[in-house]
Structure formats: C-alpha cells, structure tokens
Amino acid sequence: MEKGKIYTYQGFTFTSEAELNEAKKEAEVVSYIRSQADLGNTKTVIKLYNRLIEKGTLVTTLGIAFLQELRSRALESGVVAESSLKPLPQPVEAEKIQEPKKMTKDRKLMELYKQRCKTLTIVVVALCVVIVGLFVIRLFGTASPYRDYEKQVLNDYAGWKEELTIKEEELHQWEQNLTEKERILAEWEVNLTEREEKQK
Q1: Domain boundary residue, one of 96, 127, 147
Q2: Residue 146: CA atoms inside 13 Å, Cβ hemisphere, count?
Q3: Are residue 117 and residue 147 in the same domain, yes or no?
Q4: Are residues 90 and 121 in the same domain?
Q5: Any residues with CB less than 8 A from the CB of 190 and at least 6 apart, and which?
C-alpha cells in the first residue's frame, strides 16, 4: 500500500486499498438490498436498518451512508422515534480492515495448489535442463565417454516423465475438485442469502 494514497469510489474517498475493497463489497450488498427489499415500506426499512446495525455488515463510509439513508426514511415516516433506533456506527479505521487471520479451508487448498504448481514448475525446468544436456552429449559424438551415462539418464528420464505425467493428472483432478467445491460454496452462499431474505 502506498502511504498517503487516496482512493475514490462512488464519490467516497478511502485511504487504503483494503478499505476500498471492503467498500466495493459493501456497494454490492447495498445494490442487492435496493433490488430486493421494499424500501418504500417503513416497517421493512426499520427492520433492515436494525438488522444491519446488529450484524455490523456495513462498516465503511459508503455503507454507513446507506444506513443513514435508511435511518432518515424511518424517522421521516413518523412511525418510529429516534430514541428507538440504534445509533449509527463509526466507520472502521483503515488499519483495522485486514484479511482475516484464520485461513479458510478453501484458501488453504488454494495455497497448497500454488505450492504444488511451483514444485511442478521446478521439476519441469529441471527436466528441460536434463534434456538440453542430453542433446549436447549427443552432438559431441558417438564415442563420447558420456555414452553410458546418457543411457542411464535416458532411463531415469523415462521414469521421471511417467512420474511427472501421473503428478500432472493428480494435480488436474485436485484442481477439478477445488473448482467443484468453490461452485458448491457459491451455491451455498446464494441459498443462505435467499433464506435470510425469506426470513425477513
């Protein structure tokens, strides 16, 4: 993060990339709420306002501006007294908006996937070096003292190639499983959101 850099999004300014990313997520939440909730219904507005405050869903200036809008709508209706509404939260400081310390299961799998990719890359580079070496040995004559060594390396290479192919297949299978889990997780989140909306 560049020190002193200011980020702007939807007319709001943010002092860190983490805060900007959080605001973008909150903008999606606000957009979803506007499309799904009947904000013309005062009871819905009051219930939604109190629920968002309790859950601490909106923490950036962008999110709190939406909470302020809901609060104003509720008070203008005259149905509810200001004292019965929960107070607006203070925006969370940029330093406090960080990635969660505990890695989720999917994130751990992603890290493992990255490590395996690095390992396979190193193996492939090493095999390429071996192949180049074999070509060099081959070019320098048939009576080379490295002739027996070349045969041994070719035999070893055949085994390495087979092992690499197996590992690539395992990695591909693992990647497919990870993609499937991500799809299931996304469906679960959508279902959870829909259930929450139905319970309102």
Answers
A1: 96
A2: 12
A3: yes
A4: no
A5: none
Q: At what angle do helices 17-36 and 61-77 cross, to 10 degrees?
A: 30
Position 195 in a domain: yes
- Overall pTM > 0.70: no
Q: Is residue 2 part of a domain?
A: no
Residue 1 lies in a domain: no
**What one-character-per-residue DSSP string does 7-53 give?**
EEETTEEESSHHHHHHHHHHHHHHHHHHHHS-TT-HHHHHHHHHHHH
Reported confidence tier of residue 122, pLDDT bands at 50, 70, 90: very high
Total domain count, the chain: 2
In sequence order, what are the beta bridge partners of 12?
Answer: 9
Q: Could you list the residue range(s) of the whole structural domain that residue 143 is in?
A: 105-199
Checking if the pLDDT of 97 tops 60, the result is: no
pLDDT digits (tens, 9 = 90+) for 127-184: 999 898 887 777 775 555 555 666 777 777 777 778 888 888 888 888 888 888 888 8
Task: Among 62, 96, 130, give the residue marking a domain's end.
Answer: 96
3-state secondary structure of 198: helix
Cβ neighbour number for residue 112 with a 10 Å cutoff: 12
Sign of CA dihedral 183, 188, 193, 197: positive
